[in-house]
Structures are given as structure tokens and as C-alpha cells.
Amino acid sequence: MSRWPYNTQRWQRLRRKKLARDPLCQACESLGHGTPAHAVDHIKAIRNGGPAFPPIDQLLSLCQTHHTQKTAADMLDQGEAWTLRGCNPDGTPRDPDDPWNAP
Q: Where are the domains of the chain?
């Protein structure tokens, strides 16, 4: 990446710190998988008003698949509503809007 803030040393330090603290994809971990994370993503995208250099707990360590899904949702201005596809370890749908979760 060659665009600000991703081309700064400050971002690279923050990215390394996040990956050192959370080396596995946080989305995959919630599904019970141990996939290594390769990307660090803002929970709230910069283009949607998120800070460029947020506290580490406002970042996500993600594998390439989940990073691509989240980025696509952000581009459609659905980043806040981005949910992980699939089921929880107990078999229930992860999407709170899934009809299965209806009262």
C-alpha cells in the first residue's frame, strides 16, 4: 500500500504491535479456527470517520479472506453492519439478522 496512513512508519509500528498481540485472524478465531492474520484493519474505516491511528483495541487482525470481505462492506458503506458469515461453534448463525435468530 502506498497511501496515507498505510505508508507511514507510525502505521507499520501499530500494525506490528497488533499482529504481535493478536497473531491469529480474530474472525476465524470466533469460528474456532486458528488462521494466521496477515492484515490489520480499522474497526471503523477512516473514510467513515474512524481515526487513522486508533488504539490497538479498535483494530482487527484478519486473514486475507476476512479482510477482503470487510473492505468490500466498508466500500458499500456497510462497515458498521459487517457481520461474519457462517455459524458460531454451537451451530447458531453469526448474523443477528438471520431469520433463525428471529423471536
A: 9-80
